[in-house]
Amino acid sequence: GDSCVETYTKTIGKCTPADACTTARNDYQQNGIRPTFCTYSAFGTTLVCCRDGSSILNAAGSRPQPPAWNSDPNRQSDNRRVSERKCDEYSREVVERVDFIPLLPDPETISLTSAKCDYIGVQLIVGGEKASQGEFPHMAAIGWANFDGGYDFKCGGSLISNNFVLTAGHCTRDPAALNPEPSVVRLGDQNIDPAVLDGADPIEVPIKQIHKHPEYKPPSKYNDIALLELVSEVSFESAIRPACLWTKPNFGEHRMAIATGWGVTDPDTRQTSKELHKVSLSLLNNNYCDQLLVSSRNRLWRGFQDSQMCAGELRGGKDTCQGDSGSPLQVVSKENQCIFNIVGITSFGVKCAKTGQPAVYTRVSSYLNWIESVVWPGE
């Protein structure tokens, strides 16, 4: 197998089928240490980093705690907010159970879980790269009916439950459209050009009701957030799956976030993309961004409020742009790489990908009470 590094012992090992690695079984049984997973083989076999030698000694107080998505849901505290409980539910849908049988008399089977999904990461919209099919399964394209009998997709959003999509407030009305309000949400797609046959199997779900934040007063740039209630519940599968909501006011260890969308990828041509793009952006301090964007203040935007956030690349070249509105700014869960946490909603920018001109996003954590009251009332 390929060489690997075992996370807890920092020793070199080889990627080996889980059921053939004695040291991984011993480490888990005797010390509570989860195996370091390599990948999945072409035949669906789970591979772990298998080191040579005997099991490591258990040091007092050093036993790692299992991640939340690996724990018994019945033991979870009931006083967490509903969006956190829902996130655990979503996380359990994208893990695979691996059973180990210790080499002992009368052994009990040990079950572990590992994340399994299509996310391949962002190595580096404007300055970004194309996303893979199914890589961001919560992405939603918001469509307005056109004169040709089809839809014009002008905004993005995030599926956050089986019948709600989170987007920007200004994505709920387009006076120039045949019908000013959006009428449909497309899920499970990477290329929104209907003429392209790429193996995707997207669905289009009519919008039942639009819930704008009660304090969103267009054309003001504040409280730019809305929820689209779908006419029917969608079934989750590999290409259609909800994202979690980031619940903290700060971003912890995260210094970068991923923006996704079908917006303009070349500011010179102003042409929106039919293919979903992704780009990594720096999370910036509001006070610092306030100074950078001071010349952009006007009667519609008087500067940053706590309910807004700032992200971009100060040297330019990477940004969200027109057409990305409503799309998510997200971070990957530290516990489960298959789960995205939505930290922001693309609201507006001054100039796409220009030096010293970051974009402004709606801060999701500032609106959790309202979101939960609409999406999960009474839970």
Outline of the structure:
This protein is mainly β. It has helices spanning 22-31, 82-92, 286-292, 368-375, and strands spanning 3-5, 12-17, 37-40, 46-51, 95-100, 110-115, 129-130, 139-145, 151-159, 164-167, 184-187, 203-212, 226-230, 244-245, 256-261, 264-266, 271-272, 277-284, 308-312, 328-332, 340-348, 359-363. Residues 61-86 are annotated as: Disordered.
Structural summary, described in words:
- This protein has a 6-stranded antiparallel beta barrel with strand order 15-18-19-22-21-20. A 6-stranded antiparallel β-barrel has the order 8-9-10-13-12-11. A 4-stranded antiparallel beta sheet has the order 1-2-4-3, covered by helices on one side.
- About 8% of the residues have low confidence.
- Strand 16 and strand 17 form a beta hairpin.
- With 379 residues, the protein is mainly beta.
- Helix content is 9%, strand content 31%.
- It catalyses: Preferential cleavage: Arg-|-Xaa, Lys-|-Xaa.
- It comes from Loxostege sticticalis.
- Keywords: Disulfide bond, Hydrolase, Protease, Secreted, Serine protease.
- One of its GO terms (cellular component) is extracellular region.
- InterPro entries: Peptidase_S1_PA, Peptidase_S1_PA_chymotrypsin, Peptidase_S1A, Trypsin_dom, TRYPSIN_HIS, TRYPSIN_SER.
